[in-house]
Amino acid sequence: RLAVEAAKLLRGKHKPTFTPNVDGGDFVIVINAEKIALSGDKLTKKFAYRHSGYPGGLRKRSIGELLIKHPTRVVENAIVGMLPH
To answer: pLDDT, tens digit, for every residue of 29-56?
Structure first.
């Protein structure tokens, strides 16, 4: 829910002057990213993947591990995944 609201604000959908192809210039600041709650057993069963570009370079970490090391990155990746490219 947090990521959905942040993505809406970043796109500018809350403004009457919303245009899909224009950056509205809005900013979102998330405080206490380490306190997010995940339902079910997503901490252990959901993974974040990244690839180095080299053969065999696919790495995966559980969301629980990422929340311990980089809690802001988990929120950022969720929000960026909801924005158009």
So the answer is: 999 999 999 999 999 999 999 999 999 9
**Residue at 14 is within a domain:** yes
Task: Give ∠ CA 8-14-19 in degrees, rounded to 5.
Answer: 85
Assess if residue 85 is contained within a domain: no
Are the beta carbons of 29 and 6 closer than 8 angstroms? no
Q: Supply the pTM of this predicted model.
A: 0.83
**Cα Dmax for the chain:** 48
User: 35 lies in a domain?
Assistant: yes
Q: Which domain holds residue 48?
A: 2-80
**Both tokens assigned to 41:** 């057993």
In a domain, 54, yes or no: yes
Find, among 28, 13, 23, 32, the residue nearest to 74 by Cα: 32
